[in-house]
């Protein structure tokens, strides 16, 4: 974003302290003082344990072109300052105004699982035909989404925004900022049961994305999940009267569904009721990623991406890290790194991927705690243990106190000698290093807080 301070003050509802600063040109927005750049706008945010206002004076001295200042923080420092009532609200207003001005088409993507993978697939398909800007990393919340928008070039055709949440009405805020032309709901899982209490409430939180859809906008959602349709029909659900819908999933009553799938060790080739002749070659593992791909295909067709470019886009697909990332180490050991996050449904999907892998000596699952599952967390972990059978996994390692429930329940189908439970990460790493062999394949899956990627890094050093 390149704007004068006068223009920025209008866009964010603020007042420029010194009118002589009106024509200062701002290049980009920064909220972290450690990443200050020449001529940027510094936005000091206030949190429970931090206050960015303490860095405003230094930022203005060291190159920032201007800064916002929240009125309840006292007298602003000398320099090019815009006073606002709330710096977070001002950031959101600024991004909303910039997005409207640029006029890019907007795609919003949410869901309990698969939203980052789907976002990456949507962007890959659209990039064959348009200039695309997308969410990077975990910039999918009330701070990250506005910053993603403000980092967009003016000539972007389509912006693809991931929308995350942990509470009700958070996605409603994001949808109001972005006002998507197309919204996608990948699925409804169990993540955030701790905060929301039920899958019905999780569905209501995800369906909030429809509240910001433009008139005549398209909602693409997983038709295998009945809760989405049920919530859409509730009188309290906010949506455009003329909203269009499109469903995807495994069941043949969806608008698009797979008609055949062929798994291989690098991905899946599949056909659908729409792509009947030439199969779609998806370079990702797992049936769940076929379902994610159906959503991406629907978006691509909505924007008239040719079938040739759809195949081209998938062939060039690059995913965000730690989403069923297949790593073949020099010794021949294969690691499936899916350590970014976990819920019961995504855990089962990852186990299914491990089951589908052929030609390996031993299939090993390292499963860590799934967090934020609420009062049923022990039962959810035990459910994963019961899901494990000898055809899916040969050796099970669990990590974390909750995952001891997984290890105990796994004894129903697996011999006790094949189950190892750890609560010390270094002990887990040592045991793995002593027992792994070339031609083994090992799955790493846990919630982000368990940091299983540290185990992956340790294996990379040895193997």
Account of the protein in words:
There is one protein chain. It is built from 16 helices and 22 strands. Helix 4 packs across helix 11, helix 8 packs across helix 9 and helix 13 runs parallel beside helix 14 (404-410). A hairpin with a 2-residue loop joins strand 14 and strand 15 (267-272). The protein has three domains: 2-86, 3-Layer(aba) Sandwich (Udp-n-acetylmuramoylalanyl-d-glutamate--2,6- Diaminopimelate Ligase, Chain: A, domain 1), CATH 3.40.1390; 103-315, UDP-N-acetylmuramoyl-L-alanine:D-glutamate ligase (3-Layer(aba) Sandwich); 325-462, Protein-Tyrosine Phosphatase, Chain A. The protein has helices at 5-11, 56-61, 87-102, 115-126, 144-150, 170-178, 193-196, 199-207, 226-232, 287-302, 307-315, 344-356, 377-387, 404-410, 425-435, 453-462, and strands at residues 2-4, 15-16, 25-27, 29-30, 41-42, 66-70, 81-84, 105-110, 132-134, 158-162, 182-185, 218-222, 244-248, 258-264, 267-272, 280-282, 325-328, 334-338, 363-368, 395-399, 419-422, 441-445. It is globular, with a radius of gyration of 24 Å. The strands form five sheets. Strands 9-10-8-11-12-13 form a six-stranded parallel β-sheet, sandwiched between helices. The longest helix has 16 residues, at 87-102.
Question: Which key features would you list for this structure?
Answer:
Udp-n-acetylmuramoylalanyl-d-glutamate--2,6- Diaminopimelate Ligase, Chain: A, domain 1, alpha/beta, UDP-N-acetylmuramoyl-L-alanine:D-glutamate ligase, Protein-Tyrosine Phosphatase, Chain A, six-stranded parallel β-sheet, 463 residues, globular
